Amino acid sequence: MAFIDRIKERARADKKKIVLPESMDRRTWEAAAQVLAEDIADIIIIGTPEEVEANSKGLDVSKATIINPFTYEKTEEYINLFVELRKSKGLTYEEAKKTALGDYMYYACLMVKAGDADGVVSGACHSTANTLRPSLQIIKTKPGVKLVSAFFLMVVPNCEYGANGTFIFADSGLEQNPDPEKLAAIAACSAESFELLCEKEAIVAMLSHSTKGSAKHADVDKVVEATRICKENNPNLKVDGELQLDAAIVPSVGASKAPDSDVAGKANVLCFPDLDAGNIGYKLVQRLAKAEAYGPVTQGIAAPINDLSRGCSAEDIVGVIAITSVQAQAK
Fold first, then answer.
1. Which residues, 6 or more positions from 164, have their beta carbon under 8 angstroms from its beta carbon?
2. What is the pTM of this model?
């Protein structure tokens, strides 16, 4: 069974309520129609009657719950919750109302915080910052998690590497230039995400332009130190570095360049040294290898709040909704 088909099957087994705040984008409605037709999740869409009318023409979204935030009976409750959550920052009722009604992402996060929804998918027509800022202000990070990071779940066709062509690439969407401690935390979170979504053991490669001392540079030192920290904090995790990409995923190269490694040549979680490398890497594989790329999927938030690439298709949104549902099941 294909990866995304298995994810959809798992989502159907315990359906979750996923909020889509981008009612102003046609792709949101196309994705909602498909999710409802396939019975993957219960969908909540935030929008005014005008937004619904303008963007949902010709689509069957009759099973969706559509909430007009200006008239919904719980809006007052959500605004008061927002004030309570941000009172230490001096947020007033008037400011909270203006923000929640002016930016549906805030409203969606308040629904999750109030227990009226399980997750949010946004970002088709908003930046990552506009998607994540409300979630960090309202839902906050998971207990014990050092930082929020993002990954892409990559499914490469006709590929014998990784988990039958399936990989996590991290961080490919959020953390610009992590220090060794942050890089170690990203690796550990990504391994946990891989095991949840792929149902297989995570094998984590800490990537570099060097393999086991083949090059000397401060950037290499960062990856070496991150690997040490990750191993120390997660003694049962299969993680190794620093490894070049070919040494990480190609068995013959791994055996040649890092013969003593239990990761080299077998990795399915690729931890990139910075956001430039991770973002370029996933887009190269997506475009040149025609891989399916799901994400950026966030990890480390107390509830599943997932971003989308602004170049996403409706089909991409469907996949991220299914992934968000599975994350919500594990919450």
1. none
2. 0.89
